[in-house]
# Entry
Amino acid sequence: MNNIFALDVDLTKGGINIGNIPITTNQLTNLLFKVISIAAIAIFMYLTIKIGSAIIHKFMERQRKSNLKFTLNEKKSMTLEAILKSILRYGVYFFGIVGILSQVFGAISLTFAGIGGVAIAFGAQSIVKDIINGFFILFEDQFAVGDYINIDDKGGIVESIELRVTKLRDFNGDLHIIPNGLISKITNHSRGDMRFAVDVEVPYDEDIDRIIGIVSQVCGEFKDSNENVLEGPKVLGVSAIRESSQTIRVIGRAKPLTQGECEMSLRREIKKALDKEKVEAPYQKRKILSDGKGDKNA
# Structure
């Protein structure tokens, strides 16, 4: 039992013995060479990805700051940068793993290569589908990095479009990683101007023309002071009449992803203007009717 694990090193005899297993000097040399080769390949992969990613980023950053006629906008440039980095990473991984396997297993027989190729082909169908659909997303400009989109029941800001997957960051901070091959229905909320609306409720007995005048003045000042507003805002009219209140609707159009901020800011300015003009908030009022007869003591 002890002889199995005994180590006998005698280089003058051409190698070492581990128990009853002889290992020649040539075998040791080949093993050391393979270990060094694998380490060199791993280091080369790491450096290639780091340096290549830095070059891609620098090139695309220079392109974003360029004033050339055919310069891509920021979102498309960031999308293309993510795709190029993804292609670089997957390419380096593929050739690096092939190189490591060739060092470990040496020459692979044609039979093994054929069987392995068929197995890989079946397993890679979904990967190929992801890659092809990813290119269609890029070339058809369906969405870009920074867009707010919905993919089926998942919604959020596009954080990255890669060769195989798209990453969405929702407003809770959760990151959704979706294979490109599964993307079929997309709703893009970041293309074109976005509508925003504010409903202002005032007491029923207030002069509606006076209220509309106050709100219209606020809208004019708001448009001049807010760079995100593209159209309006303007008073659309009275949208609802209730027992104790009347609702005035204000609409406008803003840059993508700024409509929520515009709504909140405009609502605040309208509230301040109405407070200044002593316009109270609507509330339920109760009238007590009396026949004019008081209680009589017997």
About this structure: The first helix runs from residue 25 to 65.
